Amino acid sequence: DAVRKEGLRRFEGFAKAVRELGCGMITLCSGTRNTASLWAPHPENGSDEAWNDMFDTVAAAVKTAEKLGIILAVETEAANIIDTPEKARALMDRIGSPNLKMIMDCANLFHIGEAHASNVRPVLRHAFELFGRDVVIAHGKDIKDSDGIEFCGTGEGIIDYGCFAELLCEYGYKGDMFLHGIY
Fold first, then answer.
1. 71-74 and 25-28 as β-strands: parallel, antiparallel, unpaired?
2. What is the pLDDT along the chain (183 residues), one digit of tens a residue?
3. Strand partners, 151
4. Within 13 Å and on the Cβ side, how many CA atoms surround 23?
C-alpha cells in the first residue's frame, strides 16, 4: 500500500513533466503481486484485493491525467492483473474516462498453452471486438509458437501482422506501430 501511495504522489510530477515535454500519453502496466519481477505471474493476481488495489491506483492516476490533459494507456499482460481483454474492457468501463485507453500488444494476449498459430486470428479479433476503438498504441511484439510464453523479434513468431494491420484499420486506428525486438 505504501508503494502505491508513493507512486501516486510522484505520478503528478511525472505527468506534469510529460506534458511539459509535449508528450500526450503515459503507458501503464496493471502490475502483479509478484514482488520479484514485474513480468512474473502470482497466484493472487486474480484476487478481488489485487483488482481493487489496481483499480484504485489507476482511477487516481486517471484523475491526474484528466486534470493535465494526458492519455493513460494500459495493455493486457498474461502475468499481470489485467491479463485478458475482458479485464481491460471492465477497467475502462468502470473508470469511464476518455483519458484511459489501450495499447494493443498482440503477443500479450496469449496465456500458457495458447500461443499457437491456429489461435492468432480468433484471439486478435476477440481483443479488437472488446477494445479496438480504444487503441491508442499498436505494439508490434511477437511470440513463438509454443505451450509457454516466449517472446521473439517482430516477424519471427506467430503474430499475423497482415491481420493485425487490417484490424487496426477496421477499428479506426491511425497511429504508428512500435516494433519490439528487431534483430
1. parallel
2. 888 899 999 999 999 999 999 999 999 999 999 999 988 999 999 999 999 999 999 999 999 999 999 999 999 999 999 999 999 999 999 999 999 999 999 999 999 999 999 999 999 999 999 999 999 999 999 999 999 999 999 999 999 999 999 999 999 999 999 998 876
3. 143
4. 12
- Could you write out the DSSP letters of every residue in the chain? -HHHHHHHHHHHHHHHHHHHTT--EEEE----S-SS-TTS--GGGGSHHHHHHHHHHHHHHHHHHHHHT-EEEE---TTSS--SHHHHHHHHHHH--TTEEEEEEGGGG--TTT--HHHHHHHHHHHHHHHGGGEEEEEE-EE-SSSS--EE-TTSSS--HHHHHHHHHHTT--S-EEE----
Residue 45 in grid coordinates? 493476481
